[in-house]
Design a protein that fits this description.
5-stranded antiparallel β-sheet, mainly alpha, 37 helices, single chain, 3-stranded antiparallel β-sheet
């Protein structure tokens, strides 16, 4: 075997060995089959020409049998027999028809596989000769090195030549793509062929097993023979496919160099045609610009020489010619984008090949190694800026829109009738002109119109060419953006899980000590001091002015502190309705926090002002800038917690919690910026050993400090958490208080551990997102506090305004209203009450919390968006498989995480979205409270159902799998929990039929009160004693329900009054009617009425009947009317009767004293 073919024969030999092993097991059965059934094929197997003709003879035989079978089937179908007999006779015939059809299919497969094997064999045998002929031929088909431009060629001819070159380039590109597709197809086939060989071998074993099995007893003989013959044909088809597969891989190996050479030739031709195309396009564009300049100069001359009647037409021509030479015009645009599309295409192709190469390296390495991880890090930095690409695409889309509008405008001008323009010019001439002058003007007008048409045609060509170039450029840019996004997504999905540095070990501490010595070396800091002094000498005025401002800023602590305290006092007592002091206090707090960060930023600015300085100076500058930003955040949070500051006076934070926050933020504001300075300075300096040792230790210490701060602040028993949970007991913040501690302390520790184990890049990325999340959380809390404070101020102003109006009304009113005001029914504001920023209405606070939470969630999504693709690795952790629509779907760890996220979002949405819907939309519509409640309830249930369906669908539990379980549970629970189900159904009936609504006054059984809440199982009624009664919904549907306010809120009150016998009945009637008419809550229509019901034993029975507008005033009217009746009857001298009894004494054995109401006066008095 030749040495050069060792690799080729190794692949082919391995494949042939596998096939020979398969054949050795199958030969006896196949020989038996060939001798017994396919004798013609077996007899001619040794003859090559026979192999080509024997299947045709077999096909003829099978087709003849099939034709005869069709005739038999037709006879049976047309026979006059019973349908049952017909179907019994047709069944074996139809089976035989299918077997014959399968046999023909297998014979076709035999011919196809043998032809493919023959073709592969011929390609392998002729590969050497083809390669020699290919190398002996011309390297690249003739492509001129430079454009051959005729000296007298016009612009149209040049454009035609350039278009021909572009067409040749497109054809060459398609040829190159075909070769690349062939290479890719060969690569894919190399992976699939071994699997296909194993699959075909298994199918061949199945065929042998079916041939060895006895035929079914009830099977007809002709069907058995046909089935065996079909199995034999299938076995031969599988054998011929194995032969074709065995020849395929050696053919690929033998012709690989041919295909690669063809690709090189195609790529060379494409490159040569690209150069030629660019050269032709430059020539065309230069000619276009030159012609445009010539035409513009000619138009200027014509405009200057034009006769007065033709001046407007000549100036219009000049404008058109000048438009072609406009720097923002189409010709100039073509120059800008010329060749850009080809360069972007090459860049996209290189990226695509680079990504495929990295994927292949990962596959060969068996996973992501540290070296591949470092390569991915470098490639990510080299990727094109996706933001810039998107901006370029938008800019070019806008440019295409502008050019499209310009094309429409030019087309409209081009469609204008020249004769009508000419007629308009001639009609405007002076009638006194001579005939000769008219002829001159007519000649020049026609020339100008012809020139105008030429200019418009030239502009149309420019715009068409520019539009086409922009279209190609946009296509290329989108392709580059797509492959760049794919590349970046691939890197982002895997880079966080690749070790980018060695783990901390025994060499870390010595390297860190070495880094400390190097970092503190006097030479470096002397260079820093020298740079500052040199900057002062070079820029004395700038530096001096900045230093004076900085000194004044640093010395402003006491005035700013006094101002902060004064602003805190400005919102106490009667001044609580002012919001401006809160904003000023925020500004003063930020100024207090920015003093020392301003100094660090100034030093960083001046150190980086000049070029050519030692690298250590720039590293210190970078570290100072990073430390200043860290210090600004920590100092700002600390300043907000000062005594008398924003948290103390404006947000009314507990004193103990504020002091704890201030104390712990003080040490953190000193430690974190120092560690940040060391970390970022070493990162900037570029010493990998120092950055991996001392820099990493500083990074980890900073995270440990953040974890310690989280433990001190988020302890469930600590002052800070106690203050945060004081008004939220029982809420999600309270229930998850331990989770907050675990997350706050555990996440920094986990990131520090990642850095220690060598996932340094991953730790840095997560640390940046963590700091961004903390900043977002602090900003959200601050904005939420400010909004709460503002809403409280607005509410206080409204309360005070209403109180003032009530007091004014009290002062102006007389009679019962004044009495009502004087007895304390008008609310009085007490400004000395302690109110926090959270003392708002329930709905307003729900909306505010929802908006703040929504902003926080969106912000966190934006912060962590770049890291989220890395979570796709969870999709590779398959937990179990499930069947969905007949297909096997793997359930991964990512699916479970998505289901958990869906449940969490469902819980949050079901609790907050209905309230938001109520506040934002429903309250502005003309709906009563019951309708609004029904809508919000249905919204909550709909969200819950959708969330449950999505969550179960994510883990592969669809409706088809649970419907029978649900049906069984419904049937079983229907007996054991029938009352609960009855209440559930009744709740749905109440929601849809609305026999009562929230706010209605109802009586059910012996319970009367106001409906405050309707749930799916029970309804809450608040009775007159302010007791909440939980009534099952079934009682409202199956029992008697009295709704006092369902459709008509009007209610009639009855006041029975008995007066003594002998009283003036007409006066009593008039008095009762007058009292009813004077009451402000008694309706005039229907009018009140008094009925004299009759004479009873002890009284004259009267009844006052009146109507009130709603049950809300029931108690007040009842009380006022009874009091008014008693006062009026006393004043009018009408005696209210009481029961009287006459006692008759028949016999008394002993005397008894009588206590006289008015005993006689004594004589001595």
């Amino acid at each position: 075997m030749p040495a050069g073919q060792a690799g080729t024969w190794s692949v082919g030999d391995e494949t042939m060995l596998q096939i020979s092993r398969t054949r050795s097991r199958q030969t006896p059965v196949l020989l038996l089959l060939a001798l017994a059934v396919l004798c013609p094929l077996a007899a001619g197997a040794a003859d090559v020409s026979g192999e080509a003709t024997r299947p045709a003879l077999e096909r003829d035989q099978v087709e003849a049998e099939r034709a005869a079978l069709e005739a038999r089937i037709k006879d049976v179908e047309g026979a006059e027999i019973e349908e049952e007999v017909r179907q019994r006779q047709l069944a074996p015939l139809l089976q035989l028809r299918q077997v014959l059809a399968d046999t023909l299919t297998h014979l076709d497969a035999i011919e196809r596989h043998r032809a493919r094997a023959s073709q592969s064999r011929q390609e392998r045998e002729g590969a050497a000769a083809r390669l020699e002929a290919l190398k002996a031929g011309s390297a690249v088909p003739a492509v001129p090195a430079e454009p051959q431009v005729p000296p007298d060629a016009s612009l149209a001819q040049l454009e035609q030549a350039a278009a021909q070159v572009d067409a040749d380039l497109a054809a060459a590109g398609r040829a190159l793509a075909d070769v690349d597709a062939q290479l890719q197809r060969r690569t894919d086939r190399r992976k699939l062929v071994p699997d296909r060989i194993a699959e075909v071998s298994g199918q061949l074993e199945d065929v042998n097993g079916q041939l060895a099995a006895p035929a079914p007893a009830e099977e007809p003989a002709d069907l058995t023979a046909a089935r065996i013959r079909s199995l034999g044909a299938r076995g031969q088809a599988l054998e011929s496919e194995l032969e074709a597969l065995a020849e395929e891989i050696p053919s690929y190996d033998a012709t690989r160099e041919i295909v690669l050479t063809q690709r090189d030739r195609a790529a060379q031709r494409v490159a040569a045609l690209e150069r030629l195309s660019n050269a032709w396009n430059e020539i065309v564009n230069e000619r276009r610009i030159r012609d445009a300049a010539t035409e513009a100069a000619r138009a200027r001359r014509e405009a200057a020489r034009a006769l007065p009647p033709l001046r407007a037409l000549a100036e219009e021509n000049e404008r058109l010619a000048r438009e072609r030479t406009d720097p923002e015009g189409a010709a100039a645009g073509i120059s800008r984008v010329l060749g850009l599309s080809e360069r972007i295409d090459r860049q996209a192709q290189d990226l695509r090949e680079e990504l495929d190469g990295i994927k292949e390296r990962v596959q060969l390495a068996g996973g992501f190694t540290r070296g591949i991880g470092l390569l991915l890090l470098r490639k990510r930095d080299e990727l094109a800026d996706l933001g810039r690409l998107r901006r370029d695409i938008r800019r070019h889309q806008e440019e295409m829109s502008r050019i499209a509008l310009a094309r429409v405008d030019i087309a409209e001008q081009r469609r204008a009738d020249p004769e009508s323009v000419f007629a308009g010019v001639m009609a405007g001439l002076d009638p006194g002109l001579s005939e000769a002058d008219r002829e001159v003007i007519e000649t020049q007008a026609r020339q100008l119109l012809q020139t105008r048409r030429e200019y418009l045609d030239a502009l149309t060509g420019d715009h068409d060419a520019y539009f086409a170039r922009l279209g190609e450029l946009l296509k290329s840019e989108r392709a580059l953006l797509g492959v760049s996004e794919l590349y970046q997504r691939y890197i982002d999905e895997h880079i966080l899980w690749v070790q980018s540095a060695p783990s901390l070990g025994g060499t870390t501490l010595p390297h860190a000590v070495q880094a400390v010595r190097g970092f503190l070396a006097p030479a470096g800091w002397a260079a820093v001091g020298g740079a500052l002094l040199a900057d002062v000498r070079r820029h004395p005025v700038t530096v001096g002015f900045a230093v004076l401002i900085l000194i004044a800023f640093l010395l402003s602590r006491r005035p700013l502190r006094r101002r902060l305290v004064a602003l805190g006092e400005a919102v106490q007592g009667a001044q609580r309705t002012r919001f401006a002091p809160t904003l000023r206090a925020l500004l003063v707090s930020l100024l207090l926090a920015a003093r020392w960060p301003a100094l660090l930023l100034f030093l960083s600015w001046r150190l980086a002002a000049d070029a050519g300085l030692p690298e250590f100076v720039y590293a210190v500058s970078y570290g100072l800038r990073s430390a200043a930003l860290m210090l600004l955040v920590a100092a700002s949070a600390r300043a907000l917690c000062q005594k008398g500051g924003l948290a103390d006076r404006h947000f009314r934070m507990r004193t103990e919690a504020r002091q704890v926050l201030f104390r712990h933020l003080s040490w953190f504001a000193a430690a974190a910026p120092s560690l940040a300075f060391v970390f970022f300075a070493l990162q900037r300096q570029g010493n990998e050993v120092w950055a991996q040792s001392l820099g990493r230790l500083a990074f980890m210490l900073g995270l440990l400090a953040l974890s310690a701060l989280s433990i001190l602040l988020l302890r469930p028993g600590g002052q800070v958490m106690q203050a945060a949970l004081a008004r939220r007991r029982g809420g999600w913040l309270d229930r998850l208080r331990t989770i907050w501690l675990i997350v706050g302390a555990g996440v920094p520790l986990a990131i520090a551990a990642l850095a220690g184990f060598g996932y340094y890049y991953s730790a840095q990325q997560l640390q940046r997102r963590l700091h961004g999340s903390i900043l977002l959380l602090l900003g959200t809390l601050l904005v939420g506090g400010l909004l709460s404070r503002w809403l409280l101020v607005v509410r206080m102003r409204l309360v005070l305004k209403r109180v003032q109006q009530e007091r004014q009304k009290e002062a102006d009113s007389t009679g019962p209203a004044a009495e009502s005001a004087r007895d304390g029914s008008v609310p009085v504001a007490r400004e000395e009450e302690e109110e926090s920023v959270y003392s708002l209405g329930l709905q307003t606070m729900q909306l505010l919390r929802f908006l703040v939470t929504f902003a926080l969630v969106v912000g966190l999504w934006l912060v962590w968006a770049d890291v989220l693709p890395a979570l796709n690795v969870l999709k590779g952790a398959v937990l179990w498989n499930t069947e969905v629509a007949g297909e096997t779907v793997p359930i991964t760890l990512g699916s479970v995480a998505f289901a958990a996220l869906a449940v969490l979002l469902t819980v949050i949405a079901s609790k907050n979205l209905p309230a938001l819907l109520e506040i934002a939309i429903l309250q502005n519509l003309r709906m009563d409270r019951g309708v609004r409640f029904a809508v919000t309830s249905l919204t909550r249930y709909t969200i819950s159902i959708i969330g449950v369906v999505v969550a179960f669908g994510a883990i592969g539990i669809g409706w088809a799998k649970v419907q029978w379980l649900i049906a069984a549970m419904t049937f079983g629970l229907g007996f054991g929990l029938q009352e609960i189900f009855a209440n559930f159904v009744s709740g749905l009936v109440i929601i849809f039929e609305r026999p009562m609504r929230v706010g209605d006054t109802v009586t059910v059984g012996d319970t009367t009160g106001t409906v405050t809440r309707i749930r799916i199982r029970a309804t809450t009624i608040l009775d007159w004693d302010r007791r909440e009664m939980i009534v099952p919904n079934k009682e409202f549907i199956t029992g008697r329900l009295v709704n006092w306010t369902l459709s008509d809120t009007t209610h009639r009150l009855h006041f029975p009054v008995g007066i003594a016998h002998g009283s003036d009945t007409r006066l009593a009637e008039q008095t009762l009617l007058r009292l009813a008419r004077e009451d402000p809550d008694v309706m005039e229509d229907p009018a009140p009425a008094v009925v004299f019901r009759g004479f009873v034993d002890s009284a004259l029975d009267f009844e006052l009947r009146l109507f009130i507008p709603s049950m809300e005033v029931y108690g007040a009217v009842w009380h006022r009317m009874n009091m008014a009746i008693d006062d009026a009857f006393r004043k009018e001298g009408i005696e209210i009767a009481f029961p009287q009894h006459d006692v008759h004494i028949r016999s008394v054995d002993v005397p008894f004293p009588v206590d006289m109401a008015h005993p006689p006066e004594r004589e001595d008095q």
